Amino acid sequence: MKKESEYVGFVTYLLQNPHDNCSWIGLFIIRHDHERKGIGTIALALLEGRLKEHKIDRVRLCVQHGNIKGASFWNQHGFHVINSGFDNRNNRIDIYEKAFR
């Protein structure tokens, strides 16, 4: 993600995860010095637009358990927990999903 000529974060996503056939946001990171300036909200809106162009009707992601700031961001943007589990490093995670209208 760029703001003017400066990189402020990055995002990765899968249109279709082969394990569950759902779209997933892999990484969504805003540089610390650019947090709380609305960049994440703008970037998420752009990503959701791109997913909708591909006829995607929902997207999932995971948040490490205890990441209060991350969980709050996703909750504020319409995501909700659908499951919990462990990642490949045995860290506890919550799986979030958002359905598009």
From TrEMBL:
Task: Give the N-acetyltransferase domain ranges.
Answer: 1-101
So where does this one cross the membrane? none
The alphabetized UniProt keywords are:
Transferase
Cite the GO molecular-function annotations of the record: acyltransferase activity, transferring groups other than amino-acyl groups
Domain of life of the organism encoding this protein: Bacteria
Identify the InterPro entries for this entry. Acyl_CoA_acyltransferase, GNAT_dom
Record Pfam families: Acetyltransf_1
> What is the name listed in the Swiss-Prot or TrEMBL entry for this protein?
GNAT family N-acetyltransferase
Q: What is the species of this protein?
A: Paenibacillus lycopersici
Species classification: Bacteria, Bacillati, Bacillota, Bacilli, Bacillales
